[in-house]
Known about the structure:
The complex is a heterodimer.
Chain A: H1 6-24, E1 40-41, H2 43-46, E2 48-55, H3 58-67, H4 69-78, E3 83-88, E4 92-97, H5 100-107, E5 118-119, E6 124-125, E7 127-131, E8 136-141, H6 143-168, E9 174-178, E10 182-188, H7 194-201, E11 206-212, E12 219-223, E13 229-233, E14 238-239, E15 243-250, E16 257-263, H8 265-277, E17 283-287, E18 290-293, E19 305-309, H9 314-326, E20 333-341, H10 343-372, H11 374-396, E21 400-401, H12 403-433, H13 437-469, H14 473-505
Helix pairs in contact in A: 1-11, 6-9, 10-11, 10-12, 11-12, 11-14, 12-13, 12-14, 13-14
Chain B: H1 11-32, E1 35-36, H2 38-41, E2 43-50, H3 55-64, E3 70-74, E4 80-85, H4 95-106, E5 111-119, H5 121-149, H6 152-175, E6 179-180, H7 182-212, H8 218-250, H9 253-283, H10 288-298
Parallel strand pairs in B: 1-6
Antiparallel strand pairs in B: 2-4, 2-5, 3-4
Helix pairs in contact in B: 1-6, 5-6, 5-7, 6-7, 6-9, 7-8, 7-9, 8-9
Amino acid sequence: MLNFSKINTLIIYCIFLTFTFCASLNFQKEDNLYIDKKINLGLDLQGGSYLLLEINSDNLIQEKIQDKVIPIKKLLKENNIKYSNFRINNQSLTLDINNFDKFDLLFNSRKDNFVNPYIDNYRSFELIYKKLTSTKIEILFSKFGLLTINNSALKQSIEIVRRRIDDIGTKEPTILQRGEKRILIELPGLKDPERIKALLGKTAQLNFRLVTDNSEFGTEELISENDDKLNVSKRIIMSGENLIDAQPNINNQNNEPTVSFTLDRLGAQKFGRVTTDNVGKRLAIVLDDEIVSAPTINEAITSGNGMISGNFSFQEATDLALLLRSGALPTPLVVVEERTVGPDLGEDSIKSGTVSLIVGFILVILFMLYKYKIFGLIANTALIANLLILIGILTILEATLTLPGIAGIILTVGMAVDANVLIFERIREELKTEKSLIHAFDTGYSKAKITVLDANITTLIAAIILFAFGSGPVKGFAITLGIGIVTTLFTAYFLARHLTSLVVLNAKNNEIKI
Amino acid sequence: MDKKFNFSSKFRLANIFSLFLFAISILFIIFKGLNYGIDFKGGTLIELRSSNTDASSIRSLLNDMNLGDVNVKNFGKEGDYLIKVEQKEISGNKLIPEIKKKLSDNLSTEISFRRVENVGPKVSSELLESGIIAISLSLAAMLFYIWIRFEWQFSIGSIVALFHDVVITLGIFSILSLEINLSIIAAVLTIVGYSMNDTVVIYDRIRENLNKYNRLNISEIADLSINDTLARTIITSATTLLALLSIFILGGEILRGFSFAMILGVVIGTYSSIFVASPMLKFFKVTYKTLEKEEEKIVP
């Protein structure tokens, strides 16, 4: 175990130097164009906000099932199936029909079925029906149908969240899908996430509807900007989809902040037609079921440009313009988890983390020197190399260092000497019976090998499970702990062994104390 | 270290002591319960720094807001406070700004909000669930690994020791009403790894000595093996504890709970590998034949 070929020695030190070089990348002042890798600091160290948002697709399912009403009725009529008691429930439709077999044939037809499309990939229809009584059926979305609605809503939400956050202009945001219903957002350096939360909390469904005089059928009562109640037609003239731009402005006449918007061609046509036909009437601008303003149409607007005024502050006008530009979220988003760390706490954490790392390191080094003298020096060299390689690997992986991650490094420092302690103690035992120095070291290393491996693999198992199940900062701990074990094995069994062999092979008079 | 300690004569006493601690821990965990932090219970946590205010004025301001259970305590330095608000249901996204506003408006001192965390009830129960799964899974993985590397008696013995460590650590957290949060779960998992590490070293030596001295009984073998590895056990525990003490004292308030759990775990884990894991082999009447049988099976 003490013989090293030249090539092996070369490889060992090359590995060591490579990773040490990588570790040094973190300390260069100017950006290196060739190798631009660094350890990222976690939000708990650099400060920032972590938000976990959840979509709620219940409303969406309700909407989508309502969209099916007209096609289904049409299908039944065209095929002379009589129906009655057609009811729209929360997430399903119920109706009585007379010709059940015919309905089944049409509803579950795999060819040109526009009402209930069949998707080959998933081997499923979009809708399914259940027979409640001999005549009554309930139509609802199949598992696959629900999944599609959910997935497209989630994808769309992520896109719009990204647009809104980019628009606000935070540095290096991370926006990721997490599971089936969640969006994870990390905003480094952000002190106060309240504005972002407020902006993401709005779906921003904008539409234009006419104000009616009386509460006839097809109208609803909405609260206006002056807290009045207004009857507004349910018919949507135009929605936010037709908007191509929105900007905050200051109205020249009264110095009030407003939002000016531009419509696409289709929107401009619709808007022109409606405003021409309804001069003198009031047009309600409705955002998320609240009237932003309801101005009177003075003249036809055909240019496709318009303005929304509504007692805004300039900040509100800016935010509204941003929301309109980014588009509407398909469903409301709820913040289910939030963690924000201020930059000064992050700095404090880095400071205390570094101080405890250095102190812990020095304590361990002194202890090993005291205990093993020259071999303590070897163990300590291995320990320093271990730390450098660990940092080098973290740099290459561009891993995120968190406060628990620093704790993981310190713990590695404490536990890393274990491998060398095991070996040295074993050699001590061998020396009691073995006369030849080289022989004692050799068998010491061989015999301790299995124990060292067994002992480290158990900790590695714990680290892997922690990585798989841990979240956020805890993952950072698992990474440093896990990599630390691998680097420990390398430094103990290659680097420290090589150094030991140098000492032992050059020992004079066969005398060495361990 | 040439002194030999007679560990096996103390096994009985140690086992009674362990059982006693174990039972007390279980009783506390069941009847007093664990003090879950917001990670597992849901709620809001705010850490603030102020130059001149006290916990009671913060508390009375928050009590005016009818937030339910509010807990305010000094956190580390003077002027640093940690506020925990239990949240029974989702009160929209407005709770945190309201609390911040209330405090900034009414306390006659500059306040900086250093940390704000809010965990919804759904997420917290998921976090708890995945924490429990992670610990159980790691125990199962260890059981499996030792079963492959050693015999089933060793496997059971090491798991009993691990279980002992985890339960007593949690028991002490229950007795002292210390908070259980995500980092404590990380600590418990590391304890599992560390304690296992310690046990494996001794088991490894027991296996080796069983093969070497087949005239000795298991008590003598255990004694011999524990003594053989004692220097290593002490040195490694010492260096690990040195590193952990450094985190505990200098690592700041956030890491204190974590490092405390780890310190407890290292002490208990070291104890258990000597006084729980090794007696378990005696209990199973392990002899050199136990190893032989297994070998015969493999090589027919």
